[in-house]
Design goal:
This protein is of the alpha+beta class. Helices cover 49% and strands 18% of the residues. The chain has nine helices and eight strands. About 3% of the residues have low confidence.
Length: 246
Amino acid sequence: MSERGGGGTERAALVLARLSEWADAHLGLLRGLIAGAAVAGVLLLARSLRVTTKFTNPLEIPVEFVEKNVKLRGKLHHITEKGLEVEHIPISIPFISAIQRKWQPEGLLLIRLAGVELAAGGTAWLQRELLPKQPLWFQLLARDSAALDCLVLVHKGGFFSMCLNEELLSQGLARAARIEGLPHHSRLYWKLHKRLLRAELKAVKKNKGIWKEKSYSERVQERISSNRFLQRLKQFVSWVRSSTER
């Protein structure tokens, strides 16, 4: 019994020794296989979470991202009357992002400033305030086939970020409006709406932008221009003048 046990132990030791020799001889191959399996696992996880996917169309963004109000990173390209045209910058993972970048699509997302109705001068202010290729973050609130409704955040140095939605309101360059896409009874809707109303109130108290009080002459001129009787009188006078000149 002892001889059989000893023989079995010797055979096991011999097999283990040969496996060790093979592993030593093919160490590079083993390392490559392990690294490849790790990279493949990370890549599959990243694809399933969509964190490394570049979005070029609002409908490409998973519904879960919108429902959870995820913040995405982007780079500004154009400022238009319809909103901000932004290039989405996905999360970068070493090696994986370099591979994915080769087949990432080209395109821009149209972002509307949620809860904000721009007044005259609002677009011009954005064009002055934001730099070309300005990095920014946009928090998803709602979407349709054409655009995203978001809170847009711009880094201003240190730990300070500026919310463009609130800043436009506090400068008197916009009016607080309904936040499209969010249920009115939801807690998030009223939380954000109160923030925007507080920002608008700052401009009202300081008489800034559209809330600036007009002078007496400006108010008189506005009333004259809106008075229908005076408008018809002007038309009559101009008609009399043109008739006499003939």
